Every structure is written in C-alpha cells, then in structure tokens.
Amino acid sequence: MTTTTTPTVSRPRASGQVSRHGGRPRPNRVLPKIKTVIIAASAYLVAFIFLFPYLVMILTALRPQDELQDATYLPSTFAWSNFTNFWTSGLAGNLWVTLQVAAGSTILVLIVALPAAYYTARHNFRGRTAFLIVVLITQMFQPTAMLVGIYREFYQFGLIDTIWSLILVNGGFNLAFAVWILNAYFSSIPRELEEAAFIDGNGRWGALFRVTLPLALPGVITALIFTFIAAWNEFVVALTLTTSPENQPLTVALNSFIGQYEVDWQNLFAGSVIATIPVIILFALIERKVVGGLTAGSIK
Amino acid sequence: MTTALKAPADRRDPVRRGGTARPRRARGALRPWIYLLPAAAVLLPLFGYPIYMLGLLSVFDYRQAQVSGGEPTSFIGFENYATLFGDEKFWSVLAATVAFAAVLVVATLAVGAALAVVLTRAGRVPRLLLSLAAMAAWAAPSMTGSTVWMFLFDSDLGLVNQVLGIEGYNWFYDQWVTFGIVGATVVWHSFPFVMVTLYAGIQAIPGHVLEAAALDGASAWQTFWRVIVPMLRPLITIVVIQSIIWDFKIFTQIYVMTNGGGIAGQNLVLNVYAFQTAFGSSEYGLGSAIGVIMTLILLVVTLFYIRALYRSGEKL
Q1: Residue ranges of region Disordered (chain B) (predicted)?
Q2: Above 0.85 for ipTM, yes or no?
Q3: Multiple choice CATH, A89-294, 3.40.50.300, 3.30.300.180, 1.10.10.10, 1.10.3720.10
Q4: Which residue of B has its CA nearest to A165?
Q5: Partner-chain residue, chosen from A123, A252, A290, that has the shortest CB–CB distance to B10
Q6: Which residues in chain A have their CB less than 8 angstroms from residue B32's CB?
Q7: What pLDDT digit, counting tens, does each position of A25-74 carry?
C-alpha cells in the first residue's frame, strides 16, 4: 500500500507541488484513434448529464412565474425577479443564519483541531493512537442516528432554536476530518525545519508561527473550507434543532417551498442557486486535497 | 515547555524514561492532554452524552405525555426493542435500508471507477469538464440536489415526462421506481469521491506497469481488472467501506424527495424512520431504540474500516 498508491495520491507536501492535476495523460500508442474519440465523447456526455441538473436549476430560476407550464425548454425572457424576491423575502435572513453557522463551526474546528493535530503529529505519547482512533470513529458516526440524544441534550441546556446548537453540532461532527488532514500535513513537515528556526532564535512559538504553520497552510485551508461547506450544506440537524423560520439555515428554509401538493419551483431554485454556487467555488479550491482527508490515513 | 523541541527523548514514552526527574515525568504525561483537551471538550459532550442519552431514552417509555410532564417517565427495559422486533414495519424498513445501501454502493463504485478510467484517458478539455461536473455534484447541498432531481421527474412539469412524451406519469408513486430515482440522485452526489480517489490512485501507478500491460496486448478491461484493481486493492477497500457508511446514512434525499418517506412510508430507510418515529409521532423512546440499532450497525462497519486501515499498513 504505502509503496504503490501513496506518493502522489494527494499526500500533502510541505512545499511545491501538491497535486498532479495538470498531469498529461499517458501516451497510449496501442489504442486506435477511434477509442480516443469514444472516450472523449463519453466524457462529454457524462459531464453534460451530470451538469444538466444545474442547467435546469438555473433556467427554472430565471423563468417567469407564468411560464412554468409551457413546454418550451428556454424561458422567453429572463426573470430576475425570482432572485430579487430572494432578497426581499425572509430568505436573506436564512442565508445570514447559514453564514453564521458555517463560519462559527469553522472557527470552532480551527481552534480545537490545530493543537490536537499538531501535538499528535509531533509527539508520541501514551494514548495517542487511542485518541486518533476515537476521532476517526466520530467521523463515521452521524448526527441522524443520535438525533434524539442530541435534541434532548440541547433541550436541557436551553439551546434549541439557537445558532449555537448548530455551530456546536457542525463543529463536532467535522472535527475528525480536520484533525486527520492537519495531522498528515504536520507530519509531512520535517521537524528539523522547526528546530532550525527555533535554534535561530525564533523561540518555540516563533518557530511554530513563522515556519510550521505557513508550511501547513494548504492543509489548514483545506480543513477550513471543508468544514465550512459541510456546515453550509447540513440539513437534518438544523431541521430538528430549529423551530422558528427566522432561525433556520437556508437548506431548511428552502424545504418549506415544497408543499404537500404544490412546489414553488422558481423561488425554490433561485434560492438553491444562491445556496449552491458559493460552495462549488470554495470546493474547487480544495477538491484534490480533500481525498487525502476522507480516506484518512490510507493515503499516508 | 521548551523541552519538547530540544530533547528527542521527549518522543519516547515519558513513563519509560529514567526515574531521575519525577515532577517532569508527571508534567510529561499530562502535557498531551493540554493540547487534546479542547478536542475532547468538544467531542465528549457532542458524542458521549447524546449516545448515553439515546441509550437511556431507549429503555424508557418516553412520549409526548412524558415530555409535557402529563405522565411520569417509566422504565420499561427492552420493551421498545421488543416492540420494534415484533413490528413487521421495522423489518421491512431494515431490509429496504440494507438493500438500498447495497445497490447504491455497487452503483457508485461502478460509475466512479468507470469515470476514473475515462479521466485517465480523456484529453484535457473533456477531463476538465468532467472534473467540473463531479465537483459541482460533490459540493452541492444534498437538499438542493434533491429538489432538482425531483423537478426533473415531476409529473406535470418535469423534463423527463416532456422528453419521453408521457403525460402526467407520477414517478414517485411506485415504491421501486421512487427508490430508483432517489438512488440516482444519491449516486450523482457520491460518485465524485470514488472517481477522484481512484483517479488519483491510478495516476500513482507507475507508467511502465500500464505500458507493459498494453505491450502485452491487454485490453482496457483486462488492464483494469488484472492490473489496476489488484494494485489499488487497499485504496478500493477504504472507498468501499466509506461508501457503505455514507449510503447507509442517507437521509436528506429520501426525506426531501419522497416527502418524508413516500406513500404510506414505503420509501423509509432506518434514518428517516427513526426521525419520523421520534419527531413525527413523538415516540421518543422508540425512536431512540432505532437510533441505537443504527449506531451499532455503523459501529460494526467502522471497526471493519479501522481494521482495513491497519491492514493497509497504516501506522496510526
């Protein structure tokens, strides 16, 4: 394992190249040209199929309210009103809740994961393995199965229907990924570098902040963005722990557009576009590095 | 504080160190926990306590009447579990959950692996486009992804009915058709992880190995099964187990697309069933019991995961 897949599978590097995203395809003289065409065609087709829902989402969001029943594929005019509705309706407030929850969980994870990841990467101590395994197990768990217990706990502390409960749960359930990926980054930075900086008179904290942390920055950013996205997308915990519409994050608020018999598609999709675009952009920045964190350890 | 960096001895188990400096030894044993304390302070109340509470509530008769204080909370032992195991609904939901997850794992892996191979062979533009599509599906909130697919298959307005020229066919009426559409949505959300991971794995296989296979006249199919799969076996094991865990946890897609479990609950999976029992019918004790069963199943899968990690030579 460690010899075959390891070196390049997004094993975090302290410096220089991290991924091989731009790698050229291997020359393959054996395959006839026709196969290349088929492969390219199937890639285009699959990409189209997978991107298609987004096209539908955006086009529907831009469709005038009275045109939904029409059998045309494109709207006659672009109705931006669905998007402006978003800002004038209460949804802007829900977006604000989502932002606060995502940012809050991210900060919480950063504060908590950094010291743990750093120490477990640099030192060997009794209980280290146990700690890392417990953290790994929490990644496999999910709030959904424990929902009654979580609800009961926040009920006892009077935190139902507050953003604090959402920040805590999202932070807690994303901690494992952050600890593991940061641990991998810190381990990949030679301790000699840090020691050299220390000897050069930077002091222990200076060495940490001027050498180690900057080198681990890609890992830190990956952990942060990943947590942010996960908290942004979260649905079931927010559905359970928030009761008043103005305290709901966007994902839950959008669900209220889906009625038993009727769905307000245009406004739903305008909101969905606004809920989706930021996370896709953020994710594009970290995609390659995420794999290392999710297959925690297997790629070390 | 400075010793940590200066002395390589610090790397050793502090307990085994020579008995000269007693106070240092105590400090050395305690120091890790200064760093780990914040993490423990978050994990303990967010995992330990809810799990304890879940277990506790599952052996109590705990419903709306008890929550509002109308009736006293009473200990009923394993009666909630007995109710569940005696209920046909529970078994059919459990079977559906397992079957649904199994099909999803296979489908996700097939799609992901096929596209990973396509990625390695496609030119620059199609590869970028495919990566973009994968990223968009991966990052999207499962809530918004579910609604688009719902719309595509809507009986009156959906594009699928328009293109197929069938009017008013309700795709969310039949149990299996509904599971199929929800499953497609889940695969759409989860294939990118498999694709990107395996693509990275294939990229890491030395080029000369694949060239040798090609020179020996191996077809793409043979190369995949005889070269790539054996070489990536450890990685594939991890991806499979991750997929099992993810597909077992499905909630949002079912909840949103089938309006909370489908007609007469025909599309329930354990997660949604637990949620509906606890928060829909206010049977908190019973819902907790389902949660406990779910947690135990996930725990077993997780143990397999950790074992696979150890097998793959991972030093934790």
Answers
A1: 1-23
A2: no
A3: 1.10.3720.10
A4: B46
A5: A123
A6: 119, 123, 125, 127-128
A7: 555 555 567 777 888 888 888 888 888 888 888 888 888 877 776 656 67
